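Summary: Need help interpreting a holo structure output

Steps to reproduce:
1. Submit the protein chain below together with the SMILES for NAP.
2. Request a joint structure prediction with the ligand placed.
3. Inspect the structure token block that comes back.

Expected: a single structure record containing both the chain and the bound molecule.
Actual: see attached output.

Input attached:
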Amino acid sequence: MERTNLNIGLFGFGCVGFGLYEVLHKTPSLKAQISKICVKNKGKQRPISADHFTFDKNDILLNNDINVVVELIDDADAAFEIVSAAIKSGKAVVTANKKMIAEHFEELLLLQQQYDVPLLYEAACCASIPIIRNLEEYYDNDLLESVEGIVNGSTNYILTKTFAENLSYAEALKQAQEKGYAESNPTLDTGGFDAKYKLQILLAHAFGIKTVPADIFNYGIDNIGELELKYAKEKGLKIKLVAQAFKTADNKIAAFVLPKFVDDKNKLYQVDDVFNGVVTKTCFADTQFFVGKGAGAYPTASAVISDISALSYNYKYEYKKLQQQQGLELDNTVLLNIFLRHKKEEALLLTTYFESIDESYLNNESGYISGTISLENLKEVIAINKESISAVLHDVAVTANIKTELTALLQEVALN
Ligand SMILES: NC(=O)c1ccc[n+]([C@@H]2O[C@H](COP(=O)([O-])OP(=O)(O)OC[C@H]3O[C@@H](n4cnc5c(N)ncnc54)[C@H](OP(=O)(O)O)[C@@H]3O)[C@@H](O)[C@H]2O)c1
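--- attached output ---
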């Protein structure tokens, strides 16, 4: 379908929706206008006149003059209904809803093929950083080895504030919410779910791997406590919530979201506040680094505008890596160097999950183990001891070491 004139039906007029409205009016070169805006709450005060709005989705979905649907709502289930219906009626779609994409990736892929309609979602992954289109277009011929990044602006803001300004976790979260960085449900951010959804999108475009959320392990920042903050500060490290995917020795892909200690040699060390950063590593180009604002009205709207603009020249994702069918599988056996804080009485049992232990510490109440553990075992440890432990990644372990005498030492401590 020719889209020389883009007639937009917009869903959602919150942080990003209103941002888009403003940014669009400041982008006169783009031949696009918003015809109707569908929102939810009838009693809400709006910054523009009431005749722009509807509360009935069909005023957009059944309107033949509207050829583009921009979906910017905070409800992934309702978003999937809207986006599916829009595609089925031949309307191009732009969305920022990573939860919806991650939960329905396969169905959305089929719908695009079946109806030959573009679905673009650059804003869903790292907001203002054009990472999806780069993975789609630029890395087509270069063999990607890894993609690693800070992909959630809200948690990076919280971590930056707790580190640099010694703000309490609760106060930093409140600030992130006030600035429009946080999801309506903050657990999506702080629990690492939002980062996981983005990692799923990256996995599809970087390595051609289709996943559902249950396939990928995510561990967030909710449990980070004084001990690991002190540990990091003493060693000149920062803690960042990092999503990563990389090829393993068996040519599989390991992918997970974990808080990570980063030192000042790591490119992600300087990525603070609401910024996101993504480091790609390829066979021939070595590392490349993308940085930009990862949340907020205007940075997110700028990615939405870029997608809207791309529709005018009939751009759509070709999902080249999926087409190449590299047959890559996920690997959960990868070994990780982990810092694990725990209650004193848990120390002995937890050591049995580790392949090797480099360092450990115990006081009267708590302690930590720093050593090598498989991703599978880490998942199990976290599932069993959810409330009482906190895990931070040092790095991916290259090889498994042999368990040290520390187990015996800890046995002795536990007996006393
Ligand atoms: N905020 C960011 O920095 C950011 C960054 C990247 C991606 N995103 C994504 O962008 C999307 C929007 O986020 P946001 O921060 O703008 O959310 P928000 O400020 O909470 O606004 C949500 C909007 O969705 C509307 N809405 C909810 N359910 C609806 C339904 N069933 N039908 C029509 N409208 C409905 C709400 O209507 P009412 O106004 O009537 O309440 C509101 O206008 C989300 O998918 C989010 O993950 C956000």
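--- end attachment ---

Reviewer comment: Residues 399-405 have pLDDT under 50 and may be disordered. DSSP finds 16 helices and 16 strands in the chain.
Status: needs-info
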